[in-house]
Amino acid sequence: MGASGQVLFLAWIGAVAGPPILITAWALLQRSGRFRLAWALTALAAPLYVLGVWTFLVEPRVLVTREVVIESPTWRGPPVRLGLISDTHVAAPHVDARRIQKIVARMNALSPDVVLLLGDYAGGHEPAAMRAAPQRSEILRGVAAFKGLRARYGVYAVLGNHDWWYDGPAIESALTLAGATVLENGAVAVDRPEGRLWIAGLADLESTRKQPSYPTALASLPPNEPVVVMSHWPDPFVAAPRRVALTVAGHTHCGQVNLPLVGRLVHASHAARRWGCGIYVEGGRQLYVTGGVGVSILPVRFRAPPELVVITLRGRP
What we know:
Layout: H1 3-31, H2 35-58, E1 64-72, E2 80-85, H3 97-109, E3 114-117, H4 133-144, E4 155-157, H5 161-177, E5 181-182, E6 186-190, E7 197-201, H6 214-217, E8 227-230, E9 246-249, E10 258-259, E11 263-264, E12 278-282, E13 285-289, E14 307-315
Helix pairs in contact: 1-2, 3-4
């Protein structure tokens, strides 16, 4: 059990032991005549208990579906529905292969035309050689569950930094076996009766083979055909050319903790401060950053629930 798992285990202990401890303390203070202290303790401890249970045990297990419409001035042809799944982090707390199967079923029910997998399928930070066999098996079974995805024009994937820390080629092979087309600074054509579009994918910033490059990924594309670019990190978006109808990314987890007034406490990368979660438009270029499904470092989410996203991408009238 890693540090994150140990924290989750302690959270479960606190969730079970918290009420009887609080009730006992309240009763003892009442009996000793310390009525104000008893009620002050209750007023302080009860909200903290509820907040802790929600943050550690409830919100990381929910799954929100977001339907988003994005209009792009460079989009050509009829709209396309893009299903986004990111940062599943299998074998980290809250996510196992069985949950991925449920996520796949939820995505299929949304009827996307294309499903885009945006990286970080492996949880944890250690390389595969340092993992126990059951954990390695769980990660690969989680990736294999993507085989159940149903999309009219296919499933496409990029790798994330956790995948490279784990074993990039192994995750890539597992995605291919699951029926996904893995892209690393490359693009593929999607032929629709209504007109062709392109799906491109950027290399991960932690890749041991390449660095992300829009020019390389788009080199084979005809000049006027619409293209959607996948990136695990939002950071490469700074170099996105105007011809790209939309760049989609993950990695940020929407901060995992998003406090009222204060905002996100943690930024997963330099660009996550600028493009942390949701839709961004800069100079006519468009980026969508999804908060993904899993957790990293700590097994918590607060006001940043796990999500599936379906984007309807269409031309601007």
